[in-house]
Amino acid sequence: MKLFRIFVTGLTISFLGTLPLGTLNISAMQIAISDGISPAVYFVLGALLVEITYVRVSLLAMNWVFRHERLFRWLEWITVLIIAALAVSSFMAAIEPGVRANVLLSNGIHRFLLGIMMSAVNPVQIPFWFGWSTVLFTRGVLQHQAGHYNAYIAGIGTGTFIGNMVFVFSGRLIVDRLDANEKSLHLIIGCIFVVTAVIMTWRILKKKKNIIEVPPSTDSVRQD
């Protein structure tokens, strides 16, 4: 019963965390619109593999995560550049004649590998799961046991997969049932990518400003 509770907890947090618009779920939707359900599912599975790996590593190396904030800041900027490139590609698919798909998402790379690569440079999930894991440890829901880790990660994987499938099948439903124009959808998705990039840039700059304004403590020295 304890393990089932941990599984459901991980599933719920992961599912709800997947629903807000982001780089990976919108990319999965666009792949479903352009290439079909199967490529989108492969993409989601690749991204999911990286996410559960990050969660597992963070559970075992929380101190390391704290000491490498600079690495995550670089990854955040890389993610912003990727989102900007996705936005440009989406606008190209929407505007240029003869272009029917986002060239960055619909290319020769297998969608599973593409999901791995895009998820690997997406640092948002690391502090997200680090924070939730800390809360669950503090409240005694999660303990440092292999069984707890396995149930937690299984729940996270299930919740993330279900959440992404909402976007994948929504994209196909819009195209197949509502007879929507694909170029209009690419234009909308491109705008979503632009908004996402702007919000992420604002958060990075705000975080950097806060770090500068807060003087370092003289009691301890952080080691990067």
| Class from secondary-structure proportions | mainly alpha
Average predicted local confidence, pLDDT: 78
Q: Give the overall shape.
A: globular
Order of helices and strands: HHHHHHHHH
Q: Tell me the radius of gyration.
A: 19 Å
Whole-number tally of structural domains = 1
Report the count of strand segments: 0
- The low-pLDDT segments are 214-224
Strand and helix map with partners:
Blueprint: H1 2-18, H2 23-35, H3 37-60, H4 62-67, H5 69-95, H6 111-120, H7 125-138, H8 146-176, H9 182-213
Describe the protein.
- The protein has nine helices and no strands.
- It has helices at residues 2-18, 23-35, 37-60, 62-67, 69-95, 111-120, 125-138, 146-176, 182-213.
- It is globular and about 55 Å long.
- Residues 214-224 have low confidence and may be disordered.
Briefly say what this structure is.
The chain has helices at residues 2-18, 23-35, 37-60, 62-67, 69-95, 111-120, 125-138, 146-176, 182-213. It is mainly alpha-helical. The protein is globular.
Note the main attributes of this structure:
globular, mainly alpha, 9 helices, disordered C terminus
